[in-house]
Fold this protein.
Amino acid sequence: MTTPVLIVLILLLAFAVWLGITRWLSGADMRQWDDPSRLAQDAAAEEQFAARADGQSSEQRIVLETLAKLLGDIARVPYSKRLAQMRSSLDAVMDGRSFACRFVAANAAGVRAEWVLAPGADPNRRTLYIHGGAYTAGSPKSHRSITERFAEITGGAVLAIDYRLMPEHRRRAGIDDCRSAYRWLLENGPEGAAPATSMFVAGDSAGGNLTLSLIAWLRDAGLRAPDAAIVLSPATDSTLASPSLRANLETDPMLGPIFRHLARIPRSLLLWFAWLQNRIRPADPVISPLFGDLSNLPPLLIQASRAEMLIDDARRYARKARSAGSPVRLQTWSHMVHVWQIFTPALPEAREAFDEIRRFVDAAAPAGAAGGRAT
């Protein structure tokens, strides 16, 4: 065999190996869940809400100006310092705000956290909140506007966890922290050891991903499931296959500027990078809940914006879960930014979203445990 022929054979073999592993990393084809007619007879498949003034209200303009400043502050520092700047900028968003709740530092089985306690909170009615931030940023402080609303809505104690972030830690560390904190919360409240009378889990964006991963793990592990779960603009597919990741790049003022550069990189390279970085196959349900068994899940409410890059992550998950028989509701808003609920109470659509969450929580709570403060 001549040398040129041998080189060609080696290259063909290498390409075949690359292609085979890439397909394995990407997992099953989920395009079947892009067809809304699959659930055409299901009136609750997607509840659509309209934004006021089609994105031109004064409140929405303030939100966009806030985002532009935050992203500008991050872009102005050297690349090596951007992660630190993003973390500090996110926490600073809550500076100067007044809250009716108390925030108390906690240790949940080794996981740093804080209790969010509204006046008159029932310590045995509990919510685990998992913040977003692309697995690399965010904290209980950065999401206090959201956790305060959950405390008021549920009338109980909210535990917002400060799970370990990347890149200092691997993706698995944050997953383990969520599991440990939930198990601890079942038996511990802000006043000490005591079993929970009701349990909820909620999260946004990356925290929504961790929430969906958690509820599937609880089912498989035979542990007590939450009475309900709520996810805001969740990431459900770490293989980056959702059409809206590219289709909504220009209509998402939060994620678009951050991830625009990734749109230029071939998806196959991103899959390999994610695999090498996380040591977890991107299609593994532990980080891509969409690819898992979605049957026998607790009542779940998903809220997302029809303008954001992750809308198809939400839609695909909701359609597949409902097809598997799980009680899932999907609510979408037009012209909203990613996780617009964080801009409560100033943004009317954020208040509307929390009104829907309150109704959902009240309906899902155990008898005698529903109802927080009026909103």
Notes: Residues 186 and 196 are 5 Å apart (CA to CA). The mean pLDDT is 88.
